[in-house]
Every structure is written in structure tokens, then in C-alpha cells.
Amino acid sequence: MQIKGNTILITGGTSGIGLAFAKKFWELGNKVIICGRREERLREIKKSFNGIETKVCDVQDGEQRVELALWVMDNFPETNTLINNAGIQLLTDLTREVDLNRVNKEIEINLIAPIHLTSLFCRHLLEKNSAAIINISSGLAFVPIAFMPVYCATKAALHSFTLSLRHQLKATAVKVFEIAPPSVDTELGADRRRDSNQTHGGMHVDEFIAEAMGYLENDVYESAVGMAKNMREKGDALFAMVNH
Ligand SMILES: NC(=O)c1ccc[n+]([C@@H]2O[C@H](COP(=O)([O-])OP(=O)(O)OC[C@H]3O[C@@H](n4cnc5c(N)ncnc54)[C@H](OP(=O)(O)O)[C@@H]3O)[C@@H](O)[C@H]2O)c1
């Protein structure tokens, strides 16, 4: 895809991978719109990065997703790229009765929101000369970590969904990308860290973005970044190692 001259909506732009993509695309001169639940963060980002547009939106809520899509298409009709990035990662102990609200929340944010937003934007994107939908899945789509079974299942489903979406759009100008990150040092899972200064570990987010941008620029429609490459290629063979 062309990495300049776009108008891009990024879900979950208040931290981590979404914020890093927002900064990188902004630096390249793209128009960038981000959303998230944390209003204060959005305000700070808008102040620091002149021209980044922000919208408070909880993508868990279907009505807010519709409102977001209408707001973006009304105010930024030139929008030609959707990055489905917002996500949460929860631990789920399957040996006890699960809390359905938690399970629904994780599935709604990680899977249903990308499906719904894609469908809300699709007709709009089809009118553009060039357009893209970029889904952020995970290396864990291919090798699940057993103590976060719902998270991994949402990412495996997002991978499958992306294959179908790419097929449905193959004769159009809308390019469909999947980027599967490895472990990247972001706020993901921060709420379960004993020490709030503890890092997530893994790849530095800037290093991740540099590699991912290369794949986007070269039209590598499915890319596994860093260590996730191994997970994509070896799949089942790595399950025992990851879960030892
Ligand atoms: N970091 C990793 O190791 C890793 C590995 C593989 C895949 N990923 C994927 O990468 C994506 C980004 O995660 P990250 O690592 O950058 O984590 P992060 O730093 O926690 O960022 C998550 C982003 O998603 C937003 N978000 C979460 N729930 C939302 C909701 N209900 N409505 C709107 N926005 C919401 C958050 O914004 P608010 O809190 O302001 O709402 C935040 O901006 C996720 O899909 C994640 O699964 C990450």
C-alpha cells in the first residue's frame, strides 16, 4: 500500500501498537484519526501531535461503533484506511465456571468490533481509488498460550476472518492486510502486573512498527513480525514449547 497520502482510522490509539502506528503515519504526513476509551490520553495526544484527530469510543459497544463510523465518514470523507487494532488480553481459567461478561467483553472487543467496523466502512472504502483494511492479530493466533484461551481464540478467528475478507475484496482496490505481532512491549495485560512499572517484555514497539511498515509498503498481505514468524510457520509444533 502507499504509506503516504492516506486518511487512516486506528482503533485503540491511546497506547502501544496503535499509538505507535498513529505517530508513524502522522510523521509520514497521513491524516490520522484515533479512538479509545481514555479521554485524557486522547486529549494529550491531540495536543502533542498537531492534526491527529481523536474520538472517545468504546468499541465493545455496537452503537458506539456505528456512531464512530458515521462521525469519521461525515467529518473525514477521504478516509481510505481502517486499522482494527484495539484489543484486550485476559487470563481465563477453564477449570472453573467462566464469567460470561468477561468472555463476551474479550470477544466483542477483539473480534466482533473488527467484523462490525469492517462492514460499516466497506462500502465507503470501495469508492476509493486505493484503500486498505489492516487487522492486528497475533502470533498467538497460530500457537495458543493455554492460560489465555479466549484471547488466542479471538486472534485465530480474526486470522480466519481476514482470509475471507481478502477473498471477498480480491477484485477491488481495497487491500486487506493482517499483521501478527510477537510479544511487544506495550500496556497489554498491564492490569495484571504486580508492579505497574513492570514491562510487558518482548520487542520494542518502534522496532515492531519499523518491520510492520516494511510489510505494508511492500504489499505483504499477511505478515508475522519478529518471533511471530516462527509461530506462523511451525504452528502446532510449538504448542508444547510455549505451554511447558
Ligand atoms: N503487545 C503484544 O505483545 C501484542 C502481541 C500480539 C498482538 N497484540 C495486539 O495488538 C493490539 C494492540 O495492543 P497493544 O499491545 O498495543 O496493547 P495496549 O498498549 O494495551 O493498547 C490497546 C489499545 O486498545 C484500546 N482498547 C482496548 N479496549 C478498547 C475498547 N473497548 N474500546 C476502544 N479501545 C480499546 C486501548 O485504548 P483505551 O484503553 O484508551 O480504550 C489501547 O489504545 C491488540 O489487538 C493486541 O491484541 C499485541
Describe what you observe in this structure:
The chain has a single domain (7-242), classed as Rossmann fold (3-Layer(aba) Sandwich). It has helices at 16-27, 39-48, 62-75, 100-126, 149-168, 205-217, 228-234, 239-242, and strands at 7-11, 31-36, 53-56, 81-84, 131-136, 174-180, 222-224. The chain is globular. The protein has 244 residues and is an alpha/beta fold. It contains eight helices and seven strands. A seven-stranded parallel sheet has the order 3-2-1-4-5-6-7, with helices on both faces. The mean pLDDT is 96. The N and C termini lie far apart (39 Å). The site of NADP nicotinamide-adenine-dinucleotide phosphate has 33 residues, from helix 1 and strand 2.
Give the topology:
Elements: E1 7-11, H1 16-27, E2 31-36, H2 39-48, E3 53-56, H3 62-75, E4 81-84, H4 100-126, E5 131-136, H5 149-168, E6 174-180, H6 205-217, E7 222-224, H7 228-234, H8 239-242
Parallel strand pairs: 1-2, 1-4, 2-3, 4-5, 5-6, 6-7
Helix pairs in contact: 1-6, 3-4, 4-5
Bound molecules: NADP nicotinamide-adenine-dinucleotide phosphate.
NADP nicotinamide-adenine-dinucleotide phosphate binds at residues 11-18, 35-38, 41, 57-60, 85-89, 109, 136, 138, 181, 183-184, 186-188, 200, 202.
Pick out the low-confidence regions. none
Count up the helices: 8
Number of strands: 7
Query: How many domain units?
Result: 1
CATH topology: Rossmann fold
End-to-end distance: 39 Å
Average predicted local confidence, pLDDT: 96
Strand order of the largest sheet: 3-2-1-4-5-6-7
Sheet with the most strands?
7 strands, parallel
What is the molecular shape?
Answer: globular
Bound molecules: NADP nicotinamide-adenine-dinucleotide phosphate
What is the string of helix and strand elements? Answer: EHEHEHEHEHEHEHH
Computed CA radius of gyration, to the nearest angstrom: 17 Å
Note the beta-strand portion: 5-15%
Helical amount: 40-55%
Question: What is the CATH class?
Answer: Alpha Beta
Which CATH architecture would you pick? 3-Layer(aba) Sandwich
The CATH superfamily turns out to be NAD(P)-binding Rossmann-like Domain
